[in-house]
Write a structure and sequence with these properties.
The protein is α+β, with helices and mostly antiparallel strands. The chain has two domains: about 70 residues, no CATH class; about 70 residues, no CATH class. The chain has six helices and eight strands. The radius of gyration is 16 Å and the shape is globular. It starts with 7 loop residues before the first helix and ends in an 8-residue tail after the last strand. The structure holds iron/sulfur cluster. The site of iron/sulfur cluster (SF4) has 12 residues, from loops.
């Protein structure tokens, strides 16, 4: 599990994550190969995972847009928190493909990050995360799962990762 920067209490108060404007939004969590199998082994309905190895969102019963199939809307909690995908552990940080470079970025739509981005703790965490992602094991994992390196827009670049050969 990746060490978290945003405290749980801040996440539970916010209604931003795990909700999407479009059913095929780039923001829906993309799964690693091993995560697809782990979820299927836990008897999670196969329909929750689409052909792009992403969690298939469901229509929001209380309003517009879509929700992650694993979001408990009332409590704002993840039903598979201990099994939540790598991308969900990483968020509001994202691995972004930009001009053929793989860059650690952050989403300033997260209110906690918006407040913290100029603080020393934020800089230290971003350095920890870049070092973690640049480890041999994590770089191999990323190379085995190029589907999770996506082109997100409106995010802030932090640190380029030492990715040997960026996916096209
Ligand atoms: S798996 Fe959990 S943390 Fe990830 S988007 Fe769905 S509800 Fe949110």
């Amino acid at each position: 599990m990746i060490k978290q920067f945003v405290p749980e209490v801040a996440c539970l108060k916010c209604q931003g994550c795990c909700r999407f404007k479009e059913i095929d939004s780039v923001w829906t969590p993309c799964l690693l190969e091993e995560e697809v199998q782990d979820l299927l082994d836990k008897d999670i309905p196969a329909a929750y995972i689409n052909m792009q190895r992403k969690i298939q969102p469901v229509p929001n019963p209380k309003g517009e847009g879509f929700l992650c199939a694993f979001l408990e809307n009332q409590s704002n909690k993840c039903k598979i928190y201990n099994l939540r995908p790598f991308e969900c552990q990483l968020y509001p940080f994202l691995i972004n493909l930009r001009n053929k470079k793989v860059v650690l970025t952050v989403d300033l739509n997260c209110p906690y990050i918006k407040e913290a981005i100029n603080k020393k703790e934020f800089k230290e965490y971003a350095e920890y995360l870049a070092a973690y992602l640049n480890s041999k094991e994590q770089l191999e994992m990323l190379m085995d799962n190029p589907q999770i390196i996506q082109a997100y827009e409106d995010v802030t670049d932090l640190i380029e990762l030492k990715f040997p050969d960026a996916p096209k």
